[in-house]
C-alpha cells in the first residue's frame, strides 16, 4: 500500500520527535511492504519564519491532498520568541486552530493509559493505580470557546474582553456519537463531562448526549461536572472508560490525564473528521526549553503514528506492531529522562527511536 502522509515537524522538539516517528514508520513499511510518500508541510513558528503566517492556504490544500497528517508540535517560548510579538491570530497556535477548523477535525481522541512498566513515574499512590487504568478522552475540537467570537474593547474607560462559548445540537450529536461508537469497542461506559449547573451550553450538551445514548443501550452513560472530574482523575482514574467533553474542558482534562500516566511525553492523539482523514500528534507541547538537546521523549509521536495506521489506513496489525514494540522497549528498561527511574537505562530521543524501530518485526 502507498501511504500519502503529510508531515508537519513544527517547532521546538517537533522536528526531533517526528524524525523518530518517521523512522519507525519507515521500518513498518519495510517489514509489511508499504511505501511512505511524505509531504513535508510548514506550520506554526516554522511557517511564520518562511511565510509570515502560521499556516498558508497552500499548506491546507496540500494537507487535504494527503490521506493523513503526522504532526510534532508548534509554538515557542512566549516570553522570548519573536512569534509572540505578532497579533494573536498570527501566532503559531493560530495555525493549529486554523488547520483543525479547515479540515473539520471535530473529534479529538486522547488515550491515557498507565503502562505497567511506568507505574513508577505515576505521581499517584500505588493503591490508586493498582491494576492500571486505560481511558479515552474524546474532546470536541472545532467548537466552543476556542472558536467563538472574541474581542477586547474599551467600555466606559474599562478594558473588557469577550470570548463566547457556543455549541449547536449538531456539533454535540456528532461528537457524542463518536464517543459511544468507541465505547462499544471498549468497556462500554461514557462519562460525559460538562458544567450543567452553570452553563446553558452544558445543559444542551447533556440533553443531546442523553438522546444519542438512547441508540446505544449497551453503553452506560453518566454525567459528571468538570470540577468533579478534575478531582476524580486523581482520586480514582480507574473508573473512566470514555470521557466525552467539549473543547476547553477536554484541553484541560487531557493534560491532567496525561500527567497521571507518568508523563505527557507518552500521550498520543488523533483528530478526525467524518472521513478516514486524520491529523495525528502528541498531546504535549513543543517544549522549547529542551528543544535541540536530543532528550525529548518521542513515544507519544510514535504512538500517534500507530493511531494513524489504525484509523486512517485500517492497518491494525502494523499499529499493533508499533504499540507492542513500545511496550517491549519499556519492559527492557529503556527510558527517556522524563520517565526515568532508578535502575533503568536512560537514552536520548534518537536512541529511543532506534530501539523501537528495531523491535518492529
Ligand atoms: C492542545 C494544545 C492546543 C489546544 C493549543 C496549542 C492551542 O494545548 O492541543 O491541547 O489548546 O488545543
Ligand atoms: Mg492542551
TrEMBL record:
Molecular functions (GO terms): 3-isopropylmalate dehydrogenase activity
Residues annotated as binding substrate: 100, 110, 139, 227
One Pfam family from the record: Iso_dh
This protein's pathway: Amino-acid biosynthesis; L-leucine biosynthesis; L-leucine from 3-methyl-2-oxobutanoate: step 3/4
Binding site for NAD(+): 285-297
Domain Isopropylmalate dehydrogenase-like, first and last residues per copy: 4-356
EC number: 1.1.1.85
Places the protein is found: Cytoplasm
Known catalytic reactions: (2R,3S)-3-isopropylmalate + NAD(+) = 4-methyl-2-oxopentanoate + CO2 + NADH
Entry note: cofactor: Binds 1 Mg(2+) or Mn(2+) ion per subunit.
Annotated keywords: Amino-acid biosynthesis, Branched-chain amino acid biosynthesis, Cytoplasm, Leucine biosynthesis, Magnesium, Manganese, Metal-binding, NAD, Oxidoreductase
Site feature Important for catalysis, where: 146, 195
Record: residues binding Mg(2+): 227, 251, 255
Cofactors required: Mn(2+); Mg(2+)
InterPro entries xrefs: IsoCit/isopropylmalate_DH_CS (IPR019818), IsoPropMal-DH-like_dom (IPR024084), Isopropylmalate_DH (IPR004429)
Protein family per UniProt: Belongs to the isocitrate and isopropylmalate dehydrogenases family. LeuB type 1 subfamily.
Subunit: Homodimer.
Function field: Catalyzes the oxidation of 3-carboxy-2-hydroxy-4-methylpentanoate (3-isopropylmalate) to 3-carboxy-4-methyl-2-oxopentanoate. The product decarboxylates to 4-methyl-2 oxopentanoate.
Protein name: 3-isopropylmalate dehydrogenase
Originating organism: Faecalicatena fissicatena
